[in-house]
Each structure stands twice: as structure tokens, then as C-alpha cells.
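Appendix B. One record, verbatim.
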Amino acid sequence: MNTSLPLPTDVRLMNFGAAVLMLVFVLLTLGGAASWVLRHPAFAIQSILVQGEVVRSHAASFRHHVVPQLSGNFFTINLAQAKKAFESVPWVREAVVHRVFPGQLRTVVTEHEPMATWGEEGGNFMVNEQGQVFEAPVEEVDIEKLPRMLGPEGSSPMVTRMYRVMQPLFQTLDFNIEKMELTARGSWRVWTTSGAQIELGRGSESELVERTQLLLKTLPQVTARYNRTPMALLGADLRHKDGYALRLRGVSTLDDNNPKNLEGSRR
């Protein structure tokens, strides 16, 4: 019969101490190896590959905006910060960044597609197809072909949506919107490429559409009374309850006793 006797306390303590020392040694060895790997030049970021439909972004622009913001090597680089660095490049709307072993960053970028210029003339702000305001050199696009949008801060999605609703309506009479503005008081204005300024007023989208459709439906008949076409329109005020007021090119709207605008109504 075999009987195992417990080890003496001092022996057990010695074994435990040896195990702890061995664990510390292993951890220090692993830590040193990891530190060596993290600092080794072989794992530095050696190249950046940019993919995607890159039309307006240039290599020089990526070097200027991205490289100074990158820090660390393949293992330590912060991909979230790298993403922000790439998205700081003019024209870049979104960037997806990946590591490619052993020392490359691969980035897939999506550029802004300008829909309109934003704000007063002379600035570099534009609105993309998603209704986001961004800043980029306007000389790199044909801004003469872009409408202009104006509105309070944060209103670009609303103005973009209203433009998409209104532009097809105006095109039924061969008008094109040159500028659309949402004022600080919530009132809408439209300028056409033919030189007309139209006060849409305030209201819901459906109310604005109804007023605009009334104008465009009756404008040919109203202008025909004065031997004019709809292109003679200089201004329209749709803020009247039961109709609108017009100004027509080449037609006097004033008399000596009763100044008034030409009027269209719901009748």
C-alpha cells in the first residue's frame, strides 16, 4: 500500500516561488519580443494604396493631408484616426481603411459628387448628392452648370430635397432653377436661369408644391393675354391666399391711380 505524504511547507513555498519566477520570466520575454516587433522597421507603414472611383483627389493631396496625421506602424496605427485623416482630403466623402501585411494601408475612398454650390458666391462650399455640405476647390468643377443653394446652418438636406421636388415642376415650362434659398424665417425663394425671382413663401412641402403647380399651370394663359410667353416672367409672389402676383418683362404693371401687379387666381 502506497501512501503519499504531503510536502513540507517550505518545499511547497519554494515550488510556488519558482513557478512565479518562471511566469514573470515568460511574460518579460514575451513583452520584450512584442516591443521588438512593434519597433522593428520591417513593420513600418511603407506604402498607401488608394482605391475607388478617384476623379478629383490627387496623390499630392493625399500626401499633404494624410501622411502628417498617421503615426505608429502596421500593428499600432489607429485605423479610426487614419479614416479621419483620409476623409480630411478635399473631395473625399468616405474612406474605409484596412491593414495589408506587412506594411501597407489599403484605402477605398468615395468622393463627393457635387450637386450645387452652397452659400454666397466666392466661397468653396458645395452640397453633394446626399445633401451634405463640404469644402473643396470650386475651380475644379464647372460651377456654371451647378445651381446655388442657400440656407441656415444644418438646412442643406432640406434644401436639397426641396430642389429635387421643385426642379421637375419648373421644367414642365422649360424653366431651370438657378438658385434656391431657405431664409432664416423659413420662407422659400427660387431664381430661374431665365431671370425670374419667385417667392414661394412658407409652408409644408405639399403646400409649396400646390402653389407652384398653380403658377405653372396658369402662367401660359396669363402671359398670352399680354402677347407674351412664360419666359417673359420676371417675378412671382405666391404668398397670396387665393392666387399670385406677377411681373412680366415688357409689360407695365403700374398706372397713375392704382399701382398693382398683374394677378393670377385659382378661378
